[in-house]
Amino acid sequence: MSDYSKLAQDSIKRLLKRGVSLNDIYKLTSDFLLQHYHFSAKNEQIVKALSIVLKRDEVNDIILTALYMDEAAETMPDSEPLKGRLSRDANGHNVDEILAIGLASQFGAAATVHYGWLDNEKPGLIGVLNDKTDSINVYIDDILAALVASSAMEYLELDGGNKY
């Protein structure tokens, strides 16, 4: 983790605190590439792709903002109108999707489209986080989906471009 800036290290630690490890992102990215591009991804290249994603300050700003929102919602008084909306991940809130699209769009239109698929289908840990009832996870599932989509597109770039 020493290859990462302090900002990126903080993002990684906060993701881990919320239940998402780098290995989780690697696995979801590998599964996504296999399902959508029909090949087994090389682990070392997935690691490199995610590293490229996490080295952007703008990505880490979005991650930290999103995780802060989930954490703040958990400690917010029940009398706060936003608390009720976040507690049930209310339709129409959409700030979580806006942040995730902001993250994915830095890696191209395909990353944004793939984020949308991942957000809709919620495979693996994305769905587990979305369905948790013992904590507020409005933002983290979307951020995870955006990280997977962005890492997958960076993987394809490292592999010589999206020729699939």
UniProtKB/TrEMBL annotation:
GO molecular function, one term: phosphatidylglycerophosphatase activity
Segment forming the signal sequence: none
Sorted UniProt keywords: Hydrolase
Transmembrane domains' residue ranges: none
Top-level EC class as recorded in UniProt: hydrolase
Pfam families per record: PgpA
GO terms under biological process: lipid metabolic process
Gene3D superfamilies xref list: PgpA-like
InterPro entries attached to this UniProt entry: PgpA-like_sf, Put_PGPase, YutG/PgpA
UniProt-listed Enzyme Commission number(s): 3.1.3.27
YutG/PgpA domain residues: 49-153
The name this protein goes by in its record: Phosphatidylglycerophosphatase A
Organism encoding this protein: Oenococcus oeni (Leuconostoc oenos)
